[in-house]
Write a structure and sequence with these properties.
alpha+beta, Ribosomal Protein S5, domain 2, four-stranded mixed sheet, 4 helices
Length: 203
């Protein structure tokens, strides 16, 4: 099984995640940020990844540390679970329609981290009610999450919102598009015969 467990403890966050690349889409992560929890569940459901663990951080400061560090830990999980990347397709692409929004994502686990983020978000926090209390999601942390992910996973990722009105739909469409692109990239390519997908012989 292609699985990995990564724990990151700093003066700002405490995050532990276990990832199964060949799962069924289950997400059982203790997450204090409601909208972010919804995004991780969507990511797992559409990518058919299983993810469990817990996330906590200095939310009294803001959400940046917690969300960015979760991206780092998730990226490290993918890097560890993929190992030398032998036998996988390596790259993937998907276009996801989310109501009025249309988002495309392309990813390559080629060992070189790079993020292109054209999400075109307003930067205005999304407001929700959690356990009878008002909660928010800092939309400017969307890029922080994916930057942490690509740096740790050593992949390059392009996210482009082709059109859209709602930040909620743009972000959710992006998480779903990225998960489907990653799913395509990490699937086993039977024709490859277990070899590393690179002319160099290594990723």
């Amino acid at each position: 099984m292609r699985t990995a467990t990564i724990t990151r403890k700093t003066g700002e966050t405490q995050i532990s995640l276990t990832l199964n690349l060949d799962g069924s889409g289950k997400c059982d992560v203790k997450n204090p940020i409601g909208f972010f929890d919804h995004m991780l569940k969507s990511f797992c459901k559409h990518g058919l990844f299983d993810l469990s663990g817990s996330i906590s951080g200095d939310l009294e400061v803001d959400q940046h540390h917690t969300i960015e560090d979760t991206g780092i830990v998730l990226g490290e999980c993918f890097k560890k679970a993929l190992g030398d990347c032998a036998g996988i397709f390596r790259s993937g692409f998907f276009i996801y329609p989310m109501d009025e929004s249309l988002v495309q994502a392309a990813v390559d686990f080629g060992g070189r981290p790079y993020l292109v983020n054209n999400a075109n978000l307003t930067g205005i926090p999304l407001v929700s009610v959690q356990n009878g209390k008002e909660g928010t999601f800092q939309t400017d942390c969307f890029e922080d999450f994916w930057q942490g992910f690509v740096n740790a996973a050593c992949c390059n990722l392009h996210i482009d919102v082709i059109r859209g009105r709602s930040d909620h739909h743009k972000i959710e469409g992006a998480f779903k598009a990225v998960s489907r692109a990653i799913r395509a990239a990490v699937e086993i390519d039977e024709r490859r015969g277990g070899t590393v997908p690179s002319t160099k012989g290594v990723i």
